Amino acid sequence: MALMPAGGRKMSRRCGVVVFGMLMVLASSLHAAAPLQIAGFALGAPIEHYRERLKMDTALPLRHEEYLSEVEAKDLPGFKNGYLVFGTCLEPHKIVKIRLKYADSSKSFFNQLLQRFEARFGKPTAYRGDAFQTFIAWKWSFTDQRDGSRVSMILQHYSGDDDEYTNGNSVKLTWWSQVEAERLCDQKKTGADPARSSTPEPKAGRVDFDFLVPK
To answer: Looking at the 3D structure of the chain, how many domains does it have?
Structure first.
């Protein structure tokens, strides 16, 4: 039987430690209690519970997801603004997303938040920002072992000039299982799948790049 060189055994042990560490990070987020509330708002709560804290006249259906509506929150100490997304197909209309922007937009404040998020929920499960870290986004994914409910949390920071991203620091909680339940409810009622785009498929043939590229 061939013996592994001492250097190989050390390398094997190092690899084992690295793999074990990665598995522990993943497990910490999958089995930690999912974050369900922030700033006094809770995922799964009926939107009516917070009527006094919301600008109900701002509620609008989400484009391409008409089974969901978004409403602006008011009076949020520590936050610049915030929005709640709730389902409109199932009763009662439950909150499925919470999106809040912090009043402090600095990178140093983001680092303080990240440190506290990790202390409470473990290391993130995925990085969703860019390679240059102008846009930084850390994502945690949670699965309730009792019923399989899926919840995600994203903490992000942006300090660029691209309108696609919100400047400063923000956090978003999403109850994906309930979002899917709302979609299926709407599909059953209407007989159509709103998740599918109504845009017709492009016809085969010559591509007119002059029409597609800005002038």
So the answer is: 1
